[in-house]
Design brief:
By secondary structure, the protein is an alpha/beta fold. It has 17 helices and 16 strands. The chain folds into three domains: 2-246, pyruvate-formate lyase- activating enzyme, CATH 3.80.30.20; 251-293, no CATH class; 296-366, Arc Repressor Mutant, subunit A (Orthogonal Bundle), CATH 1.10.10.920. α12 (296-307) runs antiparallel to α17 (361-368). It is globular, with a radius of gyration of 21 Å. The structure holds iron/sulfur cluster. The site of iron/sulfur cluster has 11 residues, from loops. Pfam families: HemN_C (PF06969), Radical_SAM (PF04055). Residues 1-226 form the Radical SAM core domain. Probably acts as a heme chaperone, transferring heme to an unknown acceptor. Binds one molecule of heme per monomer, possibly covalently. Binds 1 [4Fe-4S] cluster. The cluster is coordinated with 3 cysteines and an exchangeable S-adenosyl-L-methionine.
Length: 369
């Protein structure tokens, strides 16, 4: 469920967001409520196992609209088997009132966009909060909703290895159960991309980026976080069930601007622009602008491509049972090549990244597609 509102647009962000457009909130609430209500009954009858409300910044909604949003989710779905309900939050606008509201509705996991505990790095990333605020907020959230995940960015312009290690050490000293960490990327269309193209912004050397990644793996492991995916680390029992469901090829519904769903072997994508999404919903039109049937072969390839990014690897026999497609046969040459390059290890039908392969996960994943 995509909530597109943000205070301002961070320079590296390529998501479907609207910055400083709180005037659209009421229209958004009406539109998303309608979209939720209009999901066919047969899709709502199956109990949901996970809910993820992301953005954008869901916590940018004031308490009353946030309450309405959470209420409509509870009204429209069978949550009797819900295992995990995550809400993304920004340290800038989460407070006790919103936390109590979230907890009362059943939100049991908070994903905080911390990104760093260093003021200088936060400034480079154009984030509005301070490092000290982030540490306080992590504690405050954990006191209300124990399952806290944080996002951390590394390889920001000007960042040193020591600075990154400090971020990691602060993170591991806090009541955090899950860490997602990504190297900063310069996406086309963002202001960071333009600044980088002009030479105004310089990313870190690739070798330093690799060292930073390895350092994250070492420090998080030492602190009791196990790496279960290329970019994700969790304390025992705290892997993100929602993301695992995506990666394992389970079906999911999606609502809001730019949201992509996978249901009945079909991928659909809503219009990315919030204003166009609103207009379409207000005119009684569908928000969907793309609809693509996914063949069994595509599905199998995608499950393998995501699955191989999991540290425990992917079982191609299970993929065949799930989809009817034998990737061992279809990808025989690619798999042989990856094995020769030392990027994967195979045991029967089970394929996993080697230590070297972990650094080339995108190459390995692409071989399945
Ligand atoms: S807060 Fe997050 S979603 Fe919003 S602009 Fe910044 S990076 Fe993008």
């Amino acid at each position: 469920m995509h909530v597109p509102f943000c205070r301002h647009r961070c320079g590296y962000c390529n998501f479907s967001v609207v910055a400083d457009r709180d005037d659209l909130m009421q229209r958004y609430l009406a539109a998303i409520t309608r979209e939720l209500i209009e999901i066919p009954e047969e899709l709502k009858s199956a109990p949901l196992h996970t809910v993820f409300i992301g953005g954008g910044t869901p916590t940018h909604l004031p308490p009353e609209p946030l309450n309405r949003l959470l209420t409509v989710v509870r009204e429209q779905f069978d949550l009797s088997e819900l295992r995990e309900w995550t809400l993304e939050a920004n340290p800038e606008d989460i407070n006790d009132e919103k936390l109590m509201l979230m907890s009362a509705h059943g939100v049991n996991r908070v994903s905080l966009g911390v990104q760093s505990f260093s003021d200088a790095k936060l400034d480079v990333l154009q984030r509005g909060h301070r490092g000290e605020t982030a540490t306080e907020i992590v504690r405050q959230v954990a006191a209300r909703i124990a399952n806290v995940s944080i996002d951390l960015i590394f390889a920001a312009p000007g960042e040193s290895l020591g600075g990154w290690q400090r971020d990691l050490r602060i993170a591991t000293s806090l009541p955090v159960r899950h860490v997602s960490t990504y190297a900063l990327t310069f996406e086309k269309g963002t202001s960071f991309w333009t600044r980088k193209s002009r030479g105004d912004l310089v990313g870190v050397e690739e070798s330093l980026e690799v060292t930073m990644y390895d350092s994250a793996r070492a420090i998080l492991a030492e602190a009791g976080f196990s790496q279960y995916e290329i970019s994700n680390f969790a304390r025992p029992g705290d892997r993100c069930r929602h993301n695992l469901a995506y990666w394992q090829g389970d079906p999911w519904l999606a609502v809001g601007p730019g949201a992509a769903a996978f249901v009945n072997q079909t991928r659909t994508v809503n219009h990315r622009s919030t204003t166009t999404y609103l207009k379409r919903m207000e005119r009684g039109q569908s928000p969907v602008v793309e609809s693509e049937p996914i063949t069994a072969e595509q599905h199998a390839r995608e499950i393998a491509a995501f699955g191989v990014r999991l540290i425990e690897g992917v079982d191609l026999h299970s993929v065949q049972q799930q989809t009817g497609v034998d990737l061992r046969e279809l990808c025989r040459d690619a798999l042989r090549q990856l094995r020769v390059q030392g990027l994967i290890a195979e045991s029967g039908a089970h394929v996993k990244l080697t230590e070297r392969g972990i650094h080339f996960a995108d190459t390995v994943a692409a071989a399945f597609l």
